[in-house]
Amino acid sequence: MKSVLCFGDSNTHAQVPGAGPLERYAREARWPGVLQRQLGQEWYVIEEGLSGRTTVHDDPIEGAHKNGRTYLKPCLQSHATLNLVILMLGTNDLKIRFNKPPSEVAMGIGCLVYDIRELAPGPGGTVPEIMIVAPPPMLDDIGEWQPIFDGAQAKSHHLALQFEIMADSLGVHFFDAGSVCECDPGDGFHIGAEAHEALGLALADEVKAIGWIE
């Protein structure tokens, strides 16, 4: 059995657009659940999403535990051995409190790739396959979240390119979620049920295409 860790934020946690952080889609409807369904019993899909998670930043308002880099290593060790790690973060880094351009958000993702490689939680102490997934761009209308994400909408349209550049430079896999789904108008930055289905199906194809050596 091969295992994949899906490490992300509220769009991996599957928060319902326009709802609170405790309101989630059913497990089988979340993109990791769809991925599990498509990959079948030969794969173990580990869902690790946290609302508000950043790439490498302590959040001065929501708490230091929102720092993805702080939690990644113990998470990797907890779930080792891993054949694949999927990283889908970046939206929360665009909050005005962090004031980061898309290129630096991509650098944060790069730091996580380095950490995975350093820890080498793959079979026999090897480095697992790594896939960077760029979140879909935010919608122009994000309602009450505008003061928190002021200026983020325009930046979000540049994340995919910056993430792809980072993935190419590090020699890891890349997928643009915006190529198959959009954020939901319920709040403008979370994906809805149909988007979870589309993303899970697309990522299953990407995982199968890696070319696993038996």
UniProtKB/TrEMBL annotation:
Organism of provenance: Aureimonas pseudogalii
Pfam families (alphabetical): Lipase_GDSL_2
InterPro entries reported in the protein's UniProt record: Ester_Hydrolysis_Enzymes, SGNH_hydro, SGNH_hydro_sf
GO MF annotations in UniProt: hydrolase activity, acting on ester bonds
Annotated ranges, domain SGNH hydrolase-type esterase: 6-197
Protein name: Lysophospholipase L1-like esterase
